[in-house]
Structure formats: C-alpha cells, structure tokens
Amino acid sequence: MHAKERREQITGTGALDKTILVGVLERGGSVRARFVSDRSAKSLMGFINDNAAENSTLYTDLFHTYAEASQTFQHAVVDRNFGEYVNELVHTNGSENFWSIPQRTIKGTPISINPEHLLAYVDERVFAFNNRKGSHFDRSQSALTGVAHRRLAVASLSPH
C-alpha cells in the first residue's frame, strides 16, 4: 500500500478493523488457530478453554486480556515490552516462530489478502507446522489422505 493510502486508511496503531487470529501452541506439539470476533477476555479465553487441557500451564506475554487465564490455568508471563523474552522455562518463542511463518508467506504475496481467504493461508501454515517433522512425501501423503473422498462443489468456490 502506498504511504498516502496508508495514512488515509489506517488510523491509530493499525489494529482497527483488522481480522483477529488467535493461536495456541503445545510445546513440542501442534498449533491451533482460528478467528475471534475481538480481543476481549471472553473471546480469547473461549478459544483457550476449547484448546488447552485443564491442567495446562499457559505462557503468554503481558497482554491484559490474558490476566483472566490465571483463574483457570497455571499462568506465567514474559514482559517483552522491557526486553524479557525468556525467564527460565517461561517464553513465547515457539508461538512467535509459528506466527512469523504466515506473516512471511503473506508478505511474499504480491497482492493483498482478502480476509475471507486469510484462514485458508493460516490453515495451510498450521498444517505444514504441525507436520514439520516428516518428510515432504509424508506431508503430501497426509494432505492427500485428508482430502480423499471429499467432494468440493464448484458452487462453494464462488464468492457470491
């Protein structure tokens, strides 16, 4: 986007009117991601409660919405605003690593991404990340197994 257009279209920190994705990563395991309606504790904790076991320990940054996690989970934080990225076992490096991958994918795209297609990009990166330990053949075989015997109607591809 040209600088002039950016000034006209993006106000504040640029978060206004953006599509919000949230994700959780199990250490040494898989990542899960989806859209949420807003950055409220209700939305984020709903996603966390759906995707984290009751006895889990959550490692987050100091975003104020995560404070509610302490009521349900063991919860430890790092304060990245002051340069704290690791505090013994407490860090969000794995999650930061995952989110850097779709960001690089999108920035490498010569066009802008329509929000209705954004989750497809993220889902593809979630699949690749969750199957990162296998070979290219293993990932291809897993992808083909996932689509076998599924019907994709042309009408479902139409934006109308």
Characterize the structure shown:
- The protein is an alpha+beta fold and 160 residues long.
- It has one domain: Ribonuclease H-like superfamily/Ribonuclease H (Nucleotidyltransferase, domain 5).
- Helices cover 38% and strands 15% of the residues.
- It has five helices and six strands, in the order H-E-E-H-E-E-E-E-H-H-H.
- The protein has helices at 3-9, 41-51, 93-107, 115-130, 136-147, and strands at 20-25, 31-36, 57-60, 74-77, 86-87, 90-91.
- A two-stranded antiparallel sheet has the order 1-2. The chain has a two-stranded parallel sheet with strand order 3-4.
- The longest helix is centred in the C-terminal third of the chain and has 16 residues, at 115-130.
- It is globular, with a radius of gyration of 18 Å.
CATH architecture: 2-Layer Sandwich
**Quantity of strands, as a count:** 6
Based on Cα principal axes, name the global outline: globular
Q: How would you classify the quaternary structure?
A: single chain
Q: Taking Cα atoms only, what radius of gyration do you get, to the nearest Å? A: 18 Å
Helix-strand category:
alpha+beta
> Can you write the helix and strand succession as a string?
HEEHEEEEHHH
What would the average pLDDT be, to the nearest integer?
83
What ranges have pLDDT less than 50 throughout 5 or more consecutive residues? none
Top CATH class = Alpha Beta
Determine the CATH topology: Nucleotidyltransferase, domain 5
Number of domains: 1
With helices defined by DSSP (H or I, 4 residues minimum), what is the helix count? 5
- Could you estimate the helical fraction of the residues in percent? 25-40%
Largest sheet: 2 strands, antiparallel
Distance between the termini: 27 Å
